[in-house]
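Reviewers asked in the last cycle whether our approach scales beyond single polypeptides. To address this, we selected a multi-component target totalling 222 residues and predicted its structure end to end. The input consisted of the following lines:
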Amino acid sequence: DAKTTQPTSMDCAEGRAANLPCNHSTISGNEYVYWYRQIHSQGPQYIIHGLKNNETNEMASLIITEDRKSSTLILPHATLRDTAVYYCIVRVRDTDKLIFGTGTRLQVFP
Amino acid sequence: DAGITQSPRHKVTETGTPVTLRCHQTENHRYMYWYRQDPGHGLRLIHYSYGVKDTDKGEVSDGYSVSRSKTEDFLLTLESATSSQTSVYFCAISGVAANVLTFGAGSRLTVL
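The resulting structure, written as C-alpha cells, was:
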C-alpha cells in the first residue's frame, strides 16, 4: 500500500492560493490520489481525486506530477473557512478501504 | 449530513461496560465504515462493510465488533469498554468502491 507524506502544518494569507504538497513515491499504477479535509471537529469532507491527469472542481485543483510520485492540492483563493486539516490519501489497491494519515493543518490568516 | 446519522452523539460510560454505536444511512449505499480519531493519530479505520452481513477488519479492530443486518444500519460494539477506547468515532458511507466517502457528525465516547 502506497504511503503518503505531508507537512505537518502550513500557513496561508486569506485571498492567496494555498498549495498543499503530498509525496507518494511508492504509488502503484492503478492507485488514485484522494484529498479530504476536516474542519475543526466535524467529519472529514471529500475534496477531489485523480489518477494521472490534473483535476479541477468547484473546491480545488489537483496537480499530479508526470511520474505520479507527488501531487499538490491548490485552493486558488483561500478563505478563513478553509482553515482545516487536509488529508492526502492513496487508495488501497484492490480493496474498498481508505486509509488516512495525519494530514496537514492549514491555517488561513487575515 | 447527507443522509447519515450517528447515535449517540455523546456517551460517557465506565470501564468494562458494553457500548454500541449506531450508524444509520438513508442513501442505500453499499459501503459503510467505522473510524476512530485520536490526537496525534488522525483517522484510523476500525471495521468496514461492503454489504449486508459482509464485514472486514481495518487497522485497529481489536476490542471492536460490528454487525450489519440491513443496508441502512452499521453497528459498532465495544464488548467491554476500556479507557483506551475513549475517542471520537466517525461513520462513513460510500455508494461505489470509488472511495468518495461521506462522513457522519461523529460520536464522542468517554470511558472512565
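Chain B touches chain A through 29 residues (CB under 8 Å). We regard this as preliminary and will revisit it once experimental data from Aim 1 are available.
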